[in-house]
Amino acid sequence: MTTRTFAAVIHKEEDLYVAECPEVGTVSQGTSIDEAIANLKEATELYLEEFPLPETERPLLTTFEATVNA
């Protein structure tokens, strides 16, 4: 059994937090950030049992700014 580190992108939709793992494509939700991440972890582990990922280097995760006319 191997432990791997994945990214979680979290945003709020009304009264729920939605968590997405961009490397795998799994998504889950919860009423708190901690619950959303815990649910995402479970969903990702279940997904990877059926569809294992090849061993690759971790992708670079960064942010950028964009000017938007509001």
Task: Please provide a brief summary of the model.
This protein is an alpha+beta fold and 70 residues long. The chain has one helix at residues 33-50, and strands at 9-13, 16-21, 26-30.
Rounded Rg? 14 Å
Q: Tell me roughly what share of residues is in helical segments.
A: 25-40%
Percent of sequence in beta strands? 15-25%
- Written as H for each helix and E for each strand, in order along the chain, the element string is EEEH
Number of domains: 1
| Strand line-up across the major sheet | 1-2-3
Keywords summarizing the entry:
70 residues; 3 strands; 26% helix; Double Stranded RNA Binding Domain; 23% strand; alpha+beta
Overview of this protein structure:
This protein has one helix spanning 33-50; strands at residues 9-13, 16-21, 26-30. By secondary structure, it is an alpha+beta fold. Strands 1-2-3 form a three-stranded antiparallel β-sheet, with helices on one face. A hairpin with a 4-residue loop joins strand 2 (16-21) and strand 3 (26-30). It starts with 8 loop residues before the first strand and ends in a 20-residue tail after the last helix. It comes from Candidatus Abyssobacteria bacterium SURF_17.
Write the layout of secondary structure elements.
Elements: E1 9-13, E2 16-21, E3 26-30, H1 33-50
Antiparallel strand pairs: 1-2, 2-3
